[in-house]
Amino acid sequence: MTYRLFTWELSYFSGKVRAYLRYKDRMGDLSEGFEDVLATPELIFGLLTPATGSGAVPQMQTSDGHWVQDSSDSIDFVEARHHKVPVVPSATDAPRQVLASYLVELLADEWMVVPGFWERWHYSLPGVEPNHVDYNAMQWGSAFAAGASGRDRLAAGAQMFEDMFGLSEARTNPRAVYAGLIQLGCTEATEQAWWASMENILDLLDAHFGAHDFLLGGLPSLGDFGLFGPLYAHVYRDATSGFMLRTQHPIVSEWVERTNGDNVSARTYD
Ligand SMILES: N[C@@H](CCC(=O)N[C@@H](CS)C(=O)NCC(=O)O)C(=O)O
Question: Which of 93, 154, 246, 260 has its CA 20 to 30 A from that of 135?
Fold first, then answer.
């Protein structure tokens, strides 16, 4: 069975499933590998939405024509078929590790999403310093105007921010992502408390990953891939928070690269 994963590099939940599939593949658990495909607008509207009724990413297509949308369901689907390196420990042998792994995934999926989204969009607002709006526009343009020149991808991202998210009037008339943050309880009154919660989690992870390669020891588990959602595309890759993560939390930053399997010196040493 082969898998095709439709993703954006900028996407929270894409990073979670991509890092998981890369790990399973690296460990020889996917007999025929997987293909990571940029979900361009043409693919979203021409293939994904007709197939599943959803334009959200990530979406996974199997070689026998099955589709899965939702990062947790995608991991469950692959875990049920590939058993060499399970990422959820055995419930009979290690029930507390199973619970810990699911709880950390829940924390990452449902709580850290708020400060994760806040840093991306706050540091894109006009007048906020430091500011990564051009970096952010580039990453969006690279997904939504893929194939255009660099300047045109950047311009396309900036245009999307204005047309879809109303960036220039986000403080007075919040729309789209800015309205979403308020609906999630992240306002000018609470945003620092949300970020303090993220910092608290990063401090705890610094202490933990200072002594262990992954959450449960020497091998990654579901909780690691859950945490990869907020900590890769948002906190590690976004320019403002990425500088903070690398300079203030280098141990967590190294875990990001270890979990992504793309840094030879951040590898696992048992
Ligand atoms: N519960 C879903 C959430 C997926 C999700 O929110 N994806 C975002 C990108 S990270 C997205 O596609 N947003 C655009 C949309 O929903 O159309 C999962 O775990 O896969």
Answer: 260
Return phi, psi of residue 59, to 5°. -130, 145
What angle, rounded to 10 degrees, do the helices at 250-260 and 191-209 form? 70
Average pLDDT over residues 103-108: 98
**How far apart, in Å, are the Cα atoms of 237 and each of 15, 28, 41, 129, 265?**
11, 28, 22, 18, 19
Whether the CB of 146 sits within 6 Å of ligand 1: no
Q: What is this structure's pTM?
A: 0.97
Is residue 223 within 8 Å of 104, Cβ to Cβ? yes
Q: Does the beta carbon of 71 lie inside 6 Å of ligand 1?
A: yes
Is the CB of 74 inside a 6 Å radius of any atom of ligand 1? no
Q: How many CB atoms lie within 10 A of CB 92?
A: 7
Ligand 1 centre from 109 Cα, in Å?
11
